[in-house]
Amino acid sequence: MHKERKGLIIRGWAPQLIILNHPAVGGFLTLCGWNSTLEAISAGVPMITWPMNGDQSFNEKLVVDILQVGAAVGAKVGGPYFENQQLIEVETIKSVIESVVGEGVEGEAMRKRAKVLKEKAKAAVQEGGSSYSDLKSLINELKARRL
């Protein structure tokens, strides 16, 4: 009888974008760094947000309040040191995770919005998309200035 593998431990750098694009991933607990936020959006994965410092609280507002593809655990950014961080109750964390990956209406709506954003992000980088066109314009402008 073969044993079913339940998880994987990765030591060192992990291929986050590959992991986020795996069909088994239903949500992403993130500190809301800009790179992780963009990767989750481009993968169409809803987020559980837990900002710690810097721009992370602003990114959380984008994810939760504007794009509505995530739910906040309620962390308050208090500075770079652990002792300045607010403790979050386990029931709060459980509730937020269930709201994102559970079968409720809220989670389903979040997942639908995340999938729409994934398609928009994909279209933006394809030929004719806004990011593709903007990068092409930048390259052309830099070439023109070099001459």
UniProtKB/TrEMBL annotation:
<dbReference type="Pfam" id="PF00201">
    <property type="entry name" value="UDPGT"/>
</dbReference>
<protein>
    <submittedName>
        <fullName>Glycosyltransferase</fullName>
    </submittedName>
</protein>
<dbReference type="InterPro" id="IPR002213">
    <property type="entry name" value="UDP_glucos_trans"/>
</dbReference>
<keyword id="KW-0808">Transferase</keyword>
<dbReference type="GO" id="GO:0035251">
    <property type="term" value="F:UDP-glucosyltransferase activity"/>
</dbReference>
<comment type="similarity">
    <text>Belongs to the UDP-glycosyltransferase family.</text>
</comment>
